[in-house]
Specification:
Layout lengths: L27 H16 L2 H7 L4 H9 L18 H14 L1 H5 L2 H13 L2 H12 L4 E4 L14 E5 L2 E8 L10 E7 L5 E7 L5 E4 L14 E10 L3 E2 L11 H30 L16 H32 L5 H33 L11 H10 L5 H14 L10
Parallel strand pairs: 1-4
Antiparallel strand pairs: 2-3, 3-7, 4-5, 5-8, 6-7
Helix pairs in contact: 1-4, 4-8, 4-9, 6-8, 8-9, 8-10, 8-11, 9-10, 10-11, 10-12
GO molecular function, one term: acyl-CoA dehydrogenase activity
Enzyme class: oxidoreductase
Keywords: Oxidoreductase
């Protein structure tokens, strides 16, 4: 790319983050190993980062340097193009260590799918090439104060051979850490466009004002755009995705489900550890250890079974995506992928919430002490699962099997 990001001052979050050389992974096995290594690093201080709202800069830079940021780039453009099954497992592994770290690149991957679907050949070469070089993509799509999450007020206006964008975004996960800020805006004809704005562009401001009680270090706050210039070759016809059946929404939802599965695993593991090491048995159990309480044993068994069921559906959904992606995608194939992911998303959502809530019942009142910060599991599960209501997943699945109704086509199904 012609414009290289620079290292920002700590007090200047509108400048670009450090651009470091990134490895290019060559296989699914390498991607999984890189994810395991990152998870091991991230787990060490995850609870403290959550308590202090300390942003995981070192960890996200390790994510990029390791080559994980480019694992979905097609082989034709120099990437490894790992399977969806591997992608889901990468996000599950990282999120079991730190789900905020898992969520930060969530939109990076979703946007790469949009590039694959709607970009011109020249745009693919430029954007995929930058990601292989270590550029990160952040999200500036959703807005507050609109009718729904699909409604936009931001505008992109033609100005000679380039464009200018104005608007205000929120829930901008990844933008603070990004070299590219991918902005959705309506053009003069009312069509949605996707513009890749370089960090440091005049008129672009990123505000770290995310105050959610969960996923605290995702920095999913505000992006302000005031007549921000953007090159015409970096503006995609995002509206075209509506015209053809695709798996963009399903692939995005698969990552969401993997993050929730990771949260559930971490909550169950911490429950088991606490019960074994710190909990006292209930007096009526007449046992020496809390881990010998028959009701606790039964509940742990149920949690593990539910987790394994969710993980199995997650893997099944990923394999369906791989199958659909390998052939021509028609409306029926796209629906099959969306329904498979919706089924997984229901179970990963429910086990994440159930496990993080059940933790306190099984571990006892001592587990509620701030020094352990175990409430982070429930807070993270509750906030992350708000992205898309499970009640509509049930509806989509039921309508599909009962009446043959194909699900809606957008990023949340």
């Amino acid at each position: 790319m012609s414009s290289q990001p620079t290292t920002p001052l700590d007090s200047d979050i509108d400048s670009s983050p450090l651009l470091l050389p990134a490895k290019v992974l060559r296989s699914d096995a390498e991607a999984l190993q890189a994810a395991r290594e990152l998870a091991e690093l991230a787990r060490e201080q995850a609870a403290r980062r959550d308590q202090q709202r300390k942003l995981p800069w070192a960890e996200i830079e390790q994510f990029t340097r390791s080559g994980l940021g480019s694992i979905s780039i097609p082989k034709a453009y120099g990437g490894p193009q790992v399977s969806f099954e591997t992608t889901a497992e990468v996000f599950r592994l990282i999120s079991a260590a730190d789900p905020a770290l898992g969520q930060i690149p969530q939109n990076h991957f979703g946007i790469l799918q949009l590039v694959r679907l709607t970009a011109t050949e020249a745009q693919k070469q430029a954007i995929f090439g930058s990601v292989l070089d270590g550029w990160r993509i952040g999200n500036a799509g959703p807005e507050r104060g609109t009718k729904d999450t699909l409604t936009l007020k931001a505008r992109i206006t033609r100005e000679g051979d380039s464009y200018r964008i104005s608007g205000e975004k929120f829930y901008s996960t990844g933008a603070l850490y990004a070299h590219w800020v991918a902005v959705k805006a309506l053009d003069d004809d009312g069509r949605q466009r996707l513009a890749f704005v370089r960090r440091g562009s005049p008129g672009l401001r990123i505000v770290d004002d995310w105050s959610g009680f969960g996923q605290r270090t995702t920095a999913s706050g505000t992006v302000l755009l005031d007549q921000v210039p953007v090159d015409a070759e970096l503006v995609l016809d995002n509206w075209r995705q509506r015209d053809v059946p695709n798996i963009q929404g399903a692939s995005s939802q698969l990552v969401q489900a993997a993050i929730d599965a990771g949260i559930a695993e971490a909550a169950i593991n911490d429950t088991i550890r606490f019960v074994r090491e710190k909990s006292r048995p209930w007096i009526d159990a007449n046992v020496e250890r809390a881990s010998d309480d028959p009701y606790v044993i039964a509940d742990i068994g149920r949690l593990k079974l539910d987790l394994h069921a969710a993980e199995a559906l997650l893997r099944k959904a990923a394999r369906v995506l791989d199958e659909v992606d390998a052939g021509p995608i028609d409306a029926a194939a796209a629906a099959r992928a969306s329904i498979a992911v919706a089924e997984a998303k229901v179970l990963t959502t429910e086990i994440a919430l159930q496990a993080s809530e059940k933790l306190f019942e099984l571990a006892g009142s001592r587990a509620s002490l701030a020094e352990f910060n175990l409430d982070r599991h429930w807070r993270n599960a509750r906030v992350h699962t708000l992205h898309d209501p499970v009640r509509w997943k049930y509806h989509a699945v039921g309508a599909y099997y009962l009446n043959g109704t194909l699900p809606a086509r957008h990023s949340w199904i």
